Amino acid sequence: MPPRGMSAEDKRKTVLHLFHESAKPWLLKDVEKAAAKRGVVFQAVKDVVQSLIDDSLVHVDKIGTSNWYWSFPGEASAKLRHEVGSMDAQIAALEAECAQLDERLEKAAAEFPQTEERQMAEVMLQSATDENDRLKKELESFASGDAAVLETIRGGKENCHEAVNRWTDNTFLLKSWVEKKCGDREQAAKFFKEHGVNFNNFDYLE
């Protein structure tokens, strides 16, 4: 008694086995009849064959007015070996790329390691940057006030102006200190840029 309720994969295996048993070309109508005898629903055979063609497990050639379907036993294993080889090559390429990235990270860490001096410089720079930002915002708020308010805070504004330039001066001194410590102006510029200070547009208030 033929099996009932075959899964899609079982149908594929059954039809493919037909081709491999005979190792000869088939007409679709003959495949449908033979597969039906082995439990594959007659109406489903065409779709099963097409799925095998899509996966390159079965081939079809038009000879005259007829389509002939064929598959040889060694093809499935050869295709599988090819896919495994392709995946191995992709894995090797990814591993090589990861190794290159690790090497770049190690090189970057060696060029500018996270030393106590760098940590100190980061703290000093952040303090100077925060103070500069605070004072500049305060100056902006002063500039937007009315005449009476400006007259009242004129002295405070001048003090803030001096404080901004003092912290700007400290930042330039810190820049010189960092350049001496790391011995590379480009690395020093990169360090400051990472912390939001771009000396291309960083200057004293006038």
From TrEMBL:
InterPro entries hit by this protein: LZ3wCH (IPR040661), Mnd1 (IPR005647), Mnd1_HTH (IPR040453)
Keyword Nucleus in annotation: yes
Pfam families: LZ3wCH, Mnd1
GO CC terms of this entry: nucleus
Keyword Coiled coil attached: yes
Sorted UniProt keywords: Coiled coil, Nucleus
Mnd1 HTH domain segment(s): 15-73
Major site of localization recorded for this protein: nucleus
Coiled-coil features, chain-numbered ranges: 77-145
Domain Leucine zipper with capping helix: 150-205
GO biological process: reciprocal meiotic recombination
GO molecular function annotation: double-stranded DNA binding
Subcellular location as annotated: Nucleus
Function summary: Required for proper homologous chromosome pairing and efficient cross-over and intragenic recombination during meiosis.
Family label: Belongs to the MND1 family.
Name the UniProt record assigns to this protein: Meiotic nuclear division protein 1 homolog
Species whose genome carries this gene: Micromonas pusilla (Picoplanktonic green alga)
